Amino acid sequence: MSSRSPDEFRLGVRPYDRKAGIGDEPEDPHELLHRARLLTAHGHPWAGSAWERAATALQRAGGALTPGDHADALDATALDCRGAARPAAGPLFFRAADLHEQAGRRGKALVSRARALVAGPGPGPGATACARLAELCERATGLHRIGQAAVAETATVRLLHGRARADLLDTAPDPTAEAAALRAELTRLITFAAPHRGDPAVLRVLADTRALLGRITAPDDPSAAQAHLRAALDDHRSGGRLWPATEHQLLLAAVLRATGAHVEAAALLRAALASGVTGPPPRPTDRARLCLALARTVAGSGEQGRTTPGAEEVEGDGERLSLLAEAVRHTDGPAQDIRVGALARLLLGVALAERGRHGKALGLLEQALPGFAEDGDTAARVRTRAWRAECLLHLGEPGRAAREYALAAAEARSWDDPRHGAALGLRAAHALGLAGTHRPVPEVHGAGGTVDADAKAEVEAEAEAETEAEAAAEGGAPGGGAQGPWPGLRELPEPCGPPGRYQVDVYGEVGGAGQQADTAPGTRVQGCE
Fold first, then answer.
1. Cα 212 to chain center, whole Å?
2. pLDDT for 281-318, tens place per residue?
3. Which of the 8 DSSP states describes residue 504?
4. Cα–Cα 20 to 30 A to 206, which of 36, 459, 490, 529?
5. What is the pLDDT of residue 440?
6. Rounded Cα distance, 510 and 508, in Å
7. How does DSSP classify residue 121?
8. Cβ–Cβ contacts within 10 Å for residue 494, how many?
9. Do 511 and 503 meet the contact criterion of CB atoms below 8 Å apart?
10. β-pair partners for 504
11. How far apart are CA 221 and CA 300, in angstroms?
């Protein structure tokens, strides 16, 4: 069979890096082919790029990839399809499955089909895909019994089914019971695979299974989750995987942070960011997520209730700004994760606005908003618009600020808690007042569209207090006399949090609280890569 164009493999994969710590780059096409096979066998994250180089060299020499090699190349390329390239993964996996079948690799074909279902369109596999994955599990088990599917292949299909079930936990009639059932199934999978841990491929599946087990254990038993995640990292290293286990590290750091172990969480994340010194560095989007998680850890580790910042707090604040700026740099490029990039710009923009750098902050916030428009996360959009409005007020543009506050208020009024929408509406009225326009106190509606008297009274009291403050501070700062940002900005719901109890956000946190859009996707654990 002739090889297709090497362009088939250029879908969001970084160019092959000679500094990957895997020796000098060969020139002979057959040596390149051997290198690609070796990297694939070890699950190396740059195997897709190695296949691209091998396919190009073979094509120039008049050669071709065999169906089996072509299938491995497509698998490796699809596994590295992230960000804007992610939609291409499913079709590549399905084509790889057909080629595996042609090569007589029935176990590998099932793995590729399972990965195609997990990669599928949308933020995650639905109930139909999950049911099809259950069927593939049965077929894999049957093939294993007759010696036509290896332990690693069978375990991989079962793990991918587990991932699909994990993504659907929050939609189950009884999520807690379903989570307990899934934990039991993952424990049985570990029992099945553990006797074969001498096979590096099996050890890789064990690492990812333990990480998934840690993920769905974290909301109910953080201590047990820590044990599972530490075991996952141990298996990752024991399997000879010198490249970063970013998802595992983010999850463990988040559990540590949630239990108050900020120092250990920060040390873990700093080590992950420095891992490229001795091995392949994290992918750009993964590095951005590590930076965001470390910035969050640094911000949460300071002493609470301080009135005067000490030297350590000032130093930590500087580190946080540097980390957020680095996160923004790593989210540039067409194949990067739009959601992570938007969040990085929002966080850096807010940090700069809090420090009075409103012009720079406004530019970042304007860049962030389109990413949240595609995402469907109303909490992120509301916060972005509110901070844009605050910057515009300080830059002397109250008319534009009023529009941003009004748009934020319109979205916030869809939330169960009416206070955020009311407060943002009041800020819009305040900005209109600064622009010389009449500003009525907005009505506050509760459930069923009725006027919430208590909330309205609270808003009216706030309006009166605000008017008095303006009169006292006449001639002060452009934002109505306040020297700092409007306090209500910090009370807005957290953006980009997990949409459910068992889902993961970009920081690696599972099941965070806060107002979330129904359509906001969760960041899933990248198992079996």
1. 15
2. 788 889 999 999 999 999 876 433 333 344 445 556 88
3. B
4. 36
5. 52
6. 7
7. S
8. 16
9. yes
10. 510
11. 21
User: How far is 218 from 294, CA to CA, in rounded Å?
Assistant: 19
* Side-chain half-sphere exposure of 304, counting CA atoms within 13 A: 2
Compute φ and ψ for 450, nearest 5 degrees: -80, 155
Count how many Cα atoms sit within 13 Å of the Cα of residue 528 in the half-sphere of its side chain.
Answer: 26
**H helix intervals, 239-337:** 246-258, 262-273, 284-300, 311-329
Give 123-139 pLDDT, tens digit per residue.
667 889 999 999 999 99
Structure tokens at 488: 């209500």
CA 337 to chain centre: 8
Least-confidence region, from 93-97, 247-251, 380-384, 495-499: 495-499
Burial 421-454 (b: 16+ CB within 10 A, else e): bbbbbbbbbbbbbbeeeebeebebbeeeeeebee
Token pair of 483 as six digits? 């020297």
Which residue do the tokens 């009884």 mark? 174
Quick one: DSSP state of residue 355?
T
CA separation for the pair 431, 407 (Å, rounded) = 13
Q: Facing residues of 510 across strands?
A: 504
Which two structure tokens, joined as six digits, stand for 75?
Answer: 């698998």
Q: Is 444 helix (H, G, I), strand (E, B) or coil?
A: coil
Q: What is the mean pLDDT of the chain?
A: 83
pTM of the predicted protein model? 0.84
Provide DSSP, 33-95.
Answer: HHHHHHHHHTT-TTHHHHHHHHHHHHHHTT----HHHHHHHHHHHHHT--GGGGGGHHHHHHH
Cα–Cα distance measured from residue 527 to residue 208, given in angstroms and rounded to the nearest whole number: 5
Exposure string (b/e) for 293-302, b if CB count within 10 Å is 16 or more?
A: bbbbbbbebb
- Identify the CA nearest to 382 among candidates 491, 487, 521: 491
User: Which residues are registered as beta bridge partners of 445?
Assistant: 451
CA 54, 56, 60, 62 torsion: positive or negative? Answer: positive
CB 381 within 8 A of CB 400: no
Q: Which own/partner pairs from 303-306 qualify as long-range (CB within 8 Å, at least 24 positions apart)? A: none
Give me the phi and psi of 510, to 5 degrees please. -110, 130
Q: Which residues contact 468 (CB under 8 A, 6 or more apart)?
A: none
CA distance 273 to 271: 5
Q: Which residue has the higher pLDDT, 286 or 443?
A: 286
